[in-house]
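During data preparation, we tokenized the protein backbone, and the record follows.
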Amino acid sequence: MERSHTPLPRALGPEEGGSVRIVELGHVRKKPHASRSSRGPILPDEGGGMGPSGEVMERQRRSSRVGAPRGVFRALLTVACVLGGPRVEGQERVPLPPPFWLPAFTAPMHPSASGARAAELAGPSFRAQTVRMFVRPTLAGPRLRLVLSNQYGTQPLRLEAVRVALRVSGITIDPATVREVRFAGAASVSIPPGRTAVSEAVELAVDGQRDVAVSLYFLERSGAVTWHLQGANSTYVSASGDHTAARTFESALTTRSLYFLTALHVDAAHDASLVATFGDSITDGAGSTVDTGRSWPARLAQRLAARGGKPVGVLNAGLSGNRLLKDDYGPKGSQRFERDVLAQRGVKAVILLEGINDIGRSGPASGAVTAAQIIQGYEQLIQRARAKGLKVYGGTLTPMQGHPYFTPEHEALREAVNQWIRGAGGFDAVIDFEAAVRDPANPDAIRKELTVEGLHPNDAGAERMANAIDLRLWE
């Protein structure tokens, strides 16, 4: 029986800068700020009881205009011109460019208990503990901001401290790069259930080559966790205490999960764009060595960066265990496609590699799946992506002999789906991942030196997959 999920929130408008914004499911509420600069509007707090309303701010502004002497206004005008106004070079007034916020890292979120696997997916809860996570932005920029999600929470999520820094190795960060993350001017933030908060801009330059540490301190019990189960890097949890600014600390728990951190935005170059890789654990990085950036999307990002030219970042929208047609590990792919791909600013293309879990779990226990149903699911995603102006590239499903998923019936399904991907002309281009990793002597299997257990590619297999992608698709 298919399990329903709370509707997914749309992604935030990352071109908008400044302070915390609390995003409700389905829409963003905006209120006018008390002032504007030449860089455009500065967004105020947007709900959740975390700041004065627009009406209060307007009354304060009017009151200051009535009572303030002219000299004060002249001084304020001078400061505004120096800090936020256009620069003067000779006789020419050159406006400062507005920030160009793009998601340089995203992590698809799912509930702590999902589908039929509630006990297996029961995530941890934190209290008086520090959680330090590491992510690799795939775009460069002089500043960043965080997106924290309490989408699946049942109570307000309270964070007492949030800091970012650049990673040295393991749990260790560079103390010179530690920056406090603030929300509407405050060091702490409370995120209501079902909402998402965006931080203020943080002046920390990232180059796309180093991991960024994101350290969260929970004083109060965090409650039901909104998380990404299988990340590419280690996450460290302290026994107790606020260690967000510490160079290192002793970890009481190490996982590969990401907690509440759904995105990192970068103030990117104005000609930058993104490609999303949409799939399951094969895309998420299962089978690759942790903390090395060797999943096939990470390898693709490295190839694109080394090529030069206009920056193209890669958003890994893989979710381990995910299915295209049915909820299981998180919302089904056909549902989360809007949140994780279409609503992300700057995405110009998507690589679709999903369906192997639908095939591998097809049967009496969870319902039979046909090739026609998977193909219909692809067609719907293609139509939705093209309606947004995106290119859609189809990846062939890789072999699975040697894994429990493999049966003659499942193999026939996989081959039928791949035949459609290659020959129907439904995609803008086809990326033949199967051909990159299959065993020439046994086409039903991945070459032994390229897989960990018959289904997931290892580091060498992921590199083969990334190298199978023609970079001319982004010329």
User: Anything to note?
Assistant: The longest helix spans residues 371-387. Residues 21-94 form one domain. The longest strand covers residues 161-169. The mean pLDDT is 84.
